[in-house]
Amino acid sequence: MVTFVDGVTLHLRAGKGGNGCVSVKREKFKPLAGPDGGNGGHGGDIVLVADPQVTTLLSYHHSPHRSAGNGGFGMGDHRSGAAGENLELAVPVGTVVKDASGVTLVDMIEPGTRFVVAPGGIGGLGNATLATPKRKAPGFALLGTPGWEGDVQLELKTVADVALVGFPSAGKSSLIAAISAARPKIAEYPFTTLHPNLGVVQAGDIRYTVADVPGLIEGASEGKGLGLEFLRHVERCTALVHVLDCATLEPGRDPLSDLDVILAELAAYPVPEGQVPLLERPQLVALNKVDVPEARDLADLVRPDLEARGFRVFEISTVSHEGLRQLNFALGDIVAAHRIELASAPAPERIVIRPKGSQKEFTVRVEGGTYGPVYRILGEKPVRWVQQTDFQNEEAVGYLADRLEKLGVEDQLFRAGAIPGATVVIGEGDGIVFDWEPALSSAAELMTAPRGTDPRLVQNPRRTTSQRRETYHELMDAKAEARAELEAERLGATGWDDGDEE
């Protein structure tokens, strides 16, 4: 049964924004008192929170699919929809968040760190908000945009001051149990420790944390054993303690050869850019199990060689607690010196966030197609505007055309070589495909048309007043000519002439 997980892939879906409302206020003596459609609510975000009380990603291993609440729809009488409920996911301190391609998004090493990993969709505007002096009663509203949907990777890297490294069954779990209140599993067989254990140690006025890393073997940096899975838990440690077994009965093993193997694996493991390599950090050697007479003799034999190589050596016993106090205070001094060094370090450079006005809001990419070139429009604004458009409403389509024209999309299409009738796609993938007609881009605010229609999309436009007047005059002239012709025919048939009668 899995009890510790330090790497998972989450499938996230943020909340969708609610649609805006199309409504007109009606009262007893004001049948058309103006638009009063409310806005849709924003979709809920998915937020990661670094929680010191969480030590594993096990809950996300069993339930990797998470989603936030959707925003409510807008309503009449200027009532906006409710915002979707945010979803907060507690993760251990030291969690690294990466996207689906492995690019690091954030490193949550401080307790309480919050990161919006999946932003929710934007709520659509109602027709009351879209009303302007030239468009007093819009017959459309904007739709809500979908929230972010995709996969993220969570990778846990233990945050500890000291890491205990060594071969399996070297006594690391017994050591952390002897110097702290941690109670890891201890048994007489290799790879008893299957996940890192954390313990808090008090050395005088200094309190620090110790991590018990699962046993390393030769080739651990290449994926052998459990080393590669847990070597990343050593990355954040200030100091390393090499726990060497002086009472091992395995042939071909001794404290010096074990140390050489561990040093080679630590040197082969790459640390992230900007961090101190593992072998350049403070290192101590703990010769364990000296309560056994043969182990004490071996410790006395190898200690001069270790000290000659520059290591500070401690002979300890987790059974009799011999040498543990000296080791604890030595580690406390190293941690205290490192904390003073961090406190005296210069403050990090201040981050200045500048507006993105100088960046292009969209681009036009020409792609080859079977029936001619395809002009693809890419950009945050055009894609969002398309998502907000109700293509069943002609007035909403006209509003989209106005927004794209004001953004300069038509000019860019002309520069890219587009001609009337060319295929234009907005967004990646299939996107929204339409045949481009430049004549459709004109100011809709200057047009008068019934609510819910756009005269630019009408095949048979209504006649203007001058056209109706001209038609009326032509009809009257035709009637007058017809009357005169009939009168002439009548006089010719009867032979009467007003002049002869006189």
From TrEMBL:
<keyword id="KW-0460">Magnesium</keyword>
<feature type="region of interest" description="Disordered">
    <location>
        <begin position="478"/>
        <end position="502"/>
    </location>
</feature>
<dbReference type="Pfam" id="PF09269">
    <property type="entry name" value="DUF1967"/>
</dbReference>
<dbReference type="Pfam" id="PF01926">
    <property type="entry name" value="MMR_HSR1"/>
</dbReference>
<feature type="binding site">
    <location>
        <begin position="212"/>
        <end position="215"/>
    </location>
    <ligand>
        <name>GTP</name>
    </ligand>
</feature>
<dbReference type="InterPro" id="IPR036726">
    <property type="entry name" value="GTP1_OBG_dom_sf"/>
</dbReference>
<feature type="binding site">
    <location>
        <begin position="288"/>
        <end position="291"/>
    </location>
    <ligand>
        <name>GTP</name>
    </ligand>
</feature>
<dbReference type="InterPro" id="IPR006169">
    <property type="entry name" value="GTP1_OBG_dom"/>
</dbReference>
<protein>
    <recommendedName>
        <fullName>GTPase Obg</fullName>
        <ecNumber>3.6.5.-</ecNumber>
    </recommendedName>
</protein>
<dbReference type="InterPro" id="IPR014100">
    <property type="entry name" value="GTP-bd_Obg/CgtA"/>
</dbReference>
<keyword id="KW-0342">GTP-binding</keyword>
<dbReference type="InterPro" id="IPR015349">
    <property type="entry name" value="OCT_dom"/>
</dbReference>
<dbReference type="InterPro" id="IPR027417">
    <property type="entry name" value="P-loop_NTPase"/>
</dbReference>
<dbReference type="InterPro" id="IPR006074">
    <property type="entry name" value="GTP1-OBG_CS"/>
</dbReference>
<keyword id="KW-0963">Cytoplasm</keyword>
<dbReference type="InterPro" id="IPR031167">
    <property type="entry name" value="G_OBG"/>
</dbReference>
<dbReference type="InterPro" id="IPR006073">
    <property type="entry name" value="GTP-bd"/>
</dbReference>
<feature type="binding site">
    <location>
        <begin position="166"/>
        <end position="173"/>
    </location>
    <ligand>
        <name>GTP</name>
    </ligand>
</feature>
<feature type="binding site">
    <location>
        <position position="173"/>
    </location>
    <ligand>
        <name>Mg(2+)</name>
    </ligand>
</feature>
<feature type="domain" description="OCT">
    <location>
        <begin position="354"/>
        <end position="438"/>
    </location>
</feature>
<keyword id="KW-0547">Nucleotide-binding</keyword>
<feature type="compositionally biased region" description="Basic and acidic residues">
    <location>
        <begin position="478"/>
        <end position="490"/>
    </location>
</feature>
<dbReference type="InterPro" id="IPR045086">
    <property type="entry name" value="OBG_GTPase"/>
</dbReference>
<feature type="binding site">
    <location>
        <begin position="191"/>
        <end position="195"/>
    </location>
    <ligand>
        <name>GTP</name>
    </ligand>
</feature>
<feature type="binding site">
    <location>
        <position position="193"/>
    </location>
    <ligand>
        <name>Mg(2+)</name>
    </ligand>
</feature>
<dbReference type="Pfam" id="PF01018">
    <property type="entry name" value="GTP1_OBG"/>
</dbReference>
<comment type="subunit">
    <text>Monomer.</text>
</comment>
<feature type="domain" description="OBG-type G">
    <location>
        <begin position="160"/>
        <end position="336"/>
    </location>
</feature>
<feature type="binding site">
    <location>
        <begin position="317"/>
        <end position="319"/>
    </location>
    <ligand>
        <name>GTP</name>
    </ligand>
</feature>
<comment type="function">
    <text>An essential GTPase which binds GTP, GDP and possibly (p)ppGpp with moderate affinity, with high nucleotide exchange rates and a fairly low GTP hydrolysis rate. Plays a role in control of the cell cycle, stress response, ribosome biogenesis and in those bacteria that undergo differentiation, in morphogenesis control.</text>
</comment>
<comment type="similarity">
    <text>Belongs to the TRAFAC class OBG-HflX-like GTPase superfamily. OBG GTPase family.</text>
</comment>
<feature type="domain" description="Obg">
    <location>
        <begin position="2"/>
        <end position="159"/>
    </location>
</feature>
<dbReference type="InterPro" id="IPR036346">
    <property type="entry name" value="GTP-bd_prot_GTP1/OBG_C_sf"/>
</dbReference>
<keyword id="KW-0479">Metal-binding</keyword>
<keyword id="KW-0378">Hydrolase</keyword>
